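Input sequence (201 aa), recorded before submission:
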Amino acid sequence: MEDNIRVALLVERDYDDSEFKEIVRAMNDAGVKVVVVGGGTQKSYRGRKRRSRAHADVAAVDARAGDFDAVIIPGGYAPDWMRLCQPMVDLVRRADALGKVIAAICHGPQLMVSAGIVRGRRVTSWPSIAVDMTNAGAEWRDEAVVQDGNMITSRKPADLPRFNRAILRALGAFREGRTAGADGIDQGSQAALGMGLTPIR
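Predicted structure, token format:
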């Protein structure tokens, strides 16, 4: 595995706490550098369940798609805010144009719709936004992970183990037995939550 693999993990207010946490955990354990990219309205963002706070390393307006190997979009209510942030929309669109891995879970694919990159692509998502995906020209499937070229999507937190493995395989960083296990909790490291995330007590 290359030591310089970098992923942009997007964040905005009301992100899904568990999705953000487990993505960071899996990437860190595989040796992938996680850069938390915020919308720019705040320096840190609180999760939807108020269990954690994510600290942005850089604002979307200052992030360059070419600096990353992947852009990852967690769910929760955050994608609604992300869609209102033009620099985030542009980052996803440019990363896709460059052939970078674009991965989204739960409501995250909403940002892909705003970026105009789902037409003709096979995707999945949280079921309630399936109609948004099909209206945008995507082929929606009810599967734990759907990969179409550089695009990886999943439905819900229960799909996180497969979602994380799919991302790491696409990045060439997957190591069997060291990423998220069947229960969604990382088996190779039980250390702190990792980069960019602070528990709220």
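Checked by second reader. The chain has six helices and twelve strands.
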